[in-house]
Amino acid sequence: IGLPSGKSLFQLQAERILCVQRLAAQASSEGSGSSVLIHCYIMTSRFTDDSTRIFFENHKYFGLEADQVTFFQQGTIPCISKDGRFIMETPFRVAKAPDGNGGVYSALKYSKLLEDMASRGIKYVDCYGVDNALVRVADPVFLGYFTDKGVAAAAKVVR
């Protein structure tokens, strides 16, 4: 998005994850040298999947381990005009578009990533829009607050 730093949002978010990993390792091991990995699941679309994977590979995953990043594709829905007609990609094929941020739930289920999360022992998921330049990825204060309150889900909003 043309940030003054010249960094991409992916880079900023990866740097934040690396920082939180270091803090978590220090807090959990008190200097025993053990590491903490925060697994990243990145939802793409059929239109962005290849370029996103290549971007991460070309930037060496911004310091993350390649095996701590999992890409998965969201679903698609038919494109419909304002007057309710299908938009055609070809004379015999309806155009489709990504199903949006809400598609994350069905995409995680379809890709069997809920089972993957369970097998990794993941208890909490921080879900955000990657294009949100203001997001604080893995915000320990926010995550700590909602886990302390014992709620199943929480949302951070700005007024």
TrEMBL record:
<keyword id="KW-0808">Transferase</keyword>
<protein>
    <recommendedName>
        <fullName>UDP-N-acetylglucosamine diphosphorylase</fullName>
        <ecNumber>2.7.7.23</ecNumber>
    </recommendedName>
</protein>
<comment type="pathway">
    <text>Nucleotide-sugar biosynthesis; UDP-N-acetyl-alpha-D-glucosamine biosynthesis; UDP-N-acetyl-alpha-D-glucosamine from N-acetyl-alpha-D-glucosamine 1-phosphate: step 1/1.</text>
</comment>
<keyword id="KW-0548">Nucleotidyltransferase</keyword>
<dbReference type="InterPro" id="IPR029044">
    <property type="entry name" value="Nucleotide-diphossugar_trans"/>
</dbReference>
<dbReference type="Pfam" id="PF01704">
    <property type="entry name" value="UDPGP"/>
</dbReference>
<dbReference type="InterPro" id="IPR002618">
    <property type="entry name" value="UDPGP_fam"/>
</dbReference>
<dbReference type="GO" id="GO:0003977">
    <property type="term" value="F:UDP-N-acetylglucosamine diphosphorylase activity"/>
</dbReference>
<comment type="similarity">
    <text>Belongs to the UDPGP type 1 family.</text>
</comment>
<dbReference type="GO" id="GO:0006048">
    <property type="term" value="P:UDP-N-acetylglucosamine biosynthetic process"/>
</dbReference>
<dbReference type="InterPro" id="IPR039741">
    <property type="entry name" value="UDP-sugar_pyrophosphorylase"/>
</dbReference>
